[in-house]
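Q: I have three molecules that I believe assemble together. Could you output structure tokens for the complex as a whole instead of separate predictions?
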Amino acid sequence: MDKPVNNRAWFLVLPVLVLVAFSAVIPLMTVVNYSVQDTFGNNQFFWNGLGWFQEVLESDRIHAALGRQLLFSAIILAIEIPLGIFIALNMPKRGFWASLVLVLMALPLLIPWNVVGTIWQVFGRVDIGLLGHTLAALGVDYNYVNDPLDAWATIIVMDVWHWTSLVALLCYAGLQSIPDAYYQAARIDQASRWGVFRFIELPKMSGVLLIAVLLRFMDSFMIYTEPFVVTGGGPGNATTFLSIDLVKMAIGQFDLGPAAAFSLIYFLVILLISWVFYTVMTAQRDLP
Amino acid sequence: MARITLDNLAHSYSPAPKGDADWALKPMSLTWRDGGAYALLGSSGCGKTTLLNIISGLLRPSRGRVLFGDRDVTDLPTAARNIAQVFQFPVVYDTMTVRQNLAFPLKNLGLPAAQIAARVDAVARMIGMEETLDRRARGLTADAKQKISLGRGMVRQDVNAILFDEPLTVIDPQMKWELRTQLKALHREFGHTMIYVTHDQTEALTFADEVVVMSEGRVVQAGTPQSLFDTPAHTFVGYFIGSPGMNLLDAEVRGTSARVAGTTLQLARAYAPWKGRVQIGIRPDAVRPATEGLPFRLIRAEDVGHHRILRGEVAGASFNLVLPEDEPIPAGFDRVALDPARIGVFVDDWRIEPLERAA
Amino acid sequence: MTLELRGVAKEVGGQVWIHPADLTLAPGSMNILLGPTLSGKTTLMRLMAGLDQPSAGRILWQGRDVTGQRVQDRGVAMVYQQFINYPSMTVYDNIASPLRLQRVARAEIDARVRQTAEMMRLTPMLDRRPLELSGGQQQRTALARALVKGAGLVLLDEPLANLDYKLREELRAEIPRIFEASGAIFVYATTEPEEALLLGGNTATLWEGRVTQFGPTPQVYRAPQDAVTARVFSDPPMNFKRIEVKGGEALLETARWPVDVPDGRYAAGFRAPHLTLEQSPRAVPLSARLDATEITGAETYLHLLHGEDRWVGLVPGVRRLPTGAPLTVWLDPAHVYLFDEGGRLARAAPYARAA
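A: Yes, here they are, computed for all three components at once.
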């Protein structure tokens, strides 16, 4: 049997493989290498087995950071996903306003992370920031530098401002793909607004919603730049998320071994939670 | 259930219509009796879907009124009109089972569960989907999904009308027979007013008691399938109904005779003299190969199973005739004979009536 | 130019999409693939085009094995159900696009585009864009683009399915004319028996991935080799009745007529137009019940119940008959096919044998 398979096609994949090797696999292997060894500088390494992993897993400091991180991502998802859906549902479907709203929605997405951080850092300052100053003038005791709750609120509002657009735009794209006949049928079946959402819009959005949830989860779980710029992880350790802690450990303290072990665990946690989201959200689709 | 009246209805998609061309629907008045089966027939862009959307309330007419019974519903939203509609492409609620799909309109009405269950079972039996009731609607074939859409249209008993927007487009020919037969059975059983929009003459004629033929936003003729076939009011109807359509030839008509391509034909009735473009029209099945009559040039013979279509020309105009399956094509025939009783006379595309008495 | 399929089969994920098929498409022939949705028409076409590779068998073009050859090298043109044109180009540029890709000389492109446009009656629309055209004109543009290449093999996958009935009728009458002028091998997929008959040529009937018969269209229609082919190639569906043959005579109700098949049980099949309301010399009476009538203007469909079986009859003229009432219909045994218990044709309808 002459199987008409042309193996030359594999050469076309080669550049991508090389790129991925340099950008992901090799650094990852370096990290794996560090995570099982100890060093005292001068490029001298000692085998340490799973010691670093044990240390990281038992560290109260990292437990606390993980707790904060999970809480943060949960809050972000709980706000941005419903809010994004809500905005998408209320965006104009066609015409001039649709284009205008799309552009406005896309604007925050175009601003780099550190700039967003700086904007909010200034915006929230009690002395010169518009937000901080206004709140103070209104008699609200707001100070993100000293009050952990205010610090959290600032970072969450900032992230919502920065990234809800993404969720909204994805959902909007999903909604646009629904043929008019579905809405007409629902009106004829006398479905309520909730019925239309639950049985037409939500099912048709489920694909993009999965992407939105995964993207927002991964991004928020790895958040670094903005809290680093705004609060620097403080006050105290109130906004020290995993990535900030990791950088402190790796660069601030130069604990390369524990940092590497930490990185790997971090990576696995993200993978695990993403997998859980994926499985739960696609489970319904595969039912008979 | 209700009688449906379209009172001087017209619609334009542009806010300030100027010429004739701006009107998607030109002024029309029609009455459809309660419990009738009607079809709107025409090619795409003829305004039939616009008219359907006005009846269902998805569109508000620029002019005129829509009445269900004696009630003016022109300004009522779709949900308040109590109608059902089946669309061209199957619309099913993906995440629901077949049963939940069928029950959905009843649930929205807040009917008791027992009543819903009984009704859903009855409809499932009619559309032949009892076996698949608990399957999820996603992943069924297009045929099955369209059956669900039909079933959902049928499930409410008190609807004023059921509207069908080219519902058999995605269905295989064999299945079309089954679904159409089911539709007719359902119509007999429940007596709903049904309005069926299609571009397919076979579907329109076989489904409806009365067919409304539309062209360029205008109702050209409304009548029984038989009258559309035998006495089309306009050359468009002659062309649109029947396959192939009616043959049309320029003629000079005087009394009981018509002169076509230098040949004189006898007509069954006498006609008064008319000004304008005069044509005679005849169905391809009312023409026979002959040794004398109109000169005809045969171009192609097509075997269509139970009959044959002979395509050719009379005086440069295309002209077709239809022969039964068991009748041989006479060798080298070059004339055709027309049945005088079935010749119609058209002036500027509109059919004219003969004089009462042969002159 | 000949296209030959030898034992071509396609399996996807352990599922058989196409059972081994042998087809020889003669030079300059019109070939129709007739079958319901999902019967394998499109899959077979994709195999012919080289868009997919068969899991078994070989494809020969002019006697040369082209299995596994790239589509681009095959000289194939394809037209789909959706009207696929470049929306931003004019009709002229759309038609010219395949020639530009082949780097044909400018003067020759112009000549060929104009000639093809003339044949497709698109000359007045050459400067317009596809979206300004009607559906029929858009599909004619797509057809012109397929034809202008001068490809030896033109594949048409239900090209008229998205068009209005009347337009479809007109293009159906035009396609044989265009086809005769081009000299290419045409393959035309359709679900409609009437379309197959109108286009003529050869027909391959497909059912669940199997080519059940291939031959000249009228012959496949009148002499189907099995009940499945007869069913695929009948619209309205063929009527069937289980009958018994005893002592060289077929028995149906009280009627009997001589048949030249061994005794046993058979399925008698006959098409709708062959049931009549008037008695003819050789016809036998059958008592059925009238379930519904459908009037097409020129003809009337009778939906009949005969015991457990549903039949459809087609009679000329407008008949208003009481539904639900018993009705005697007549059937000339010359129009009856007999299929054995395995569904194979045991006895062709005598009228078809004579033809």
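A: One point stands out. Chain C has a mean pLDDT of 88.
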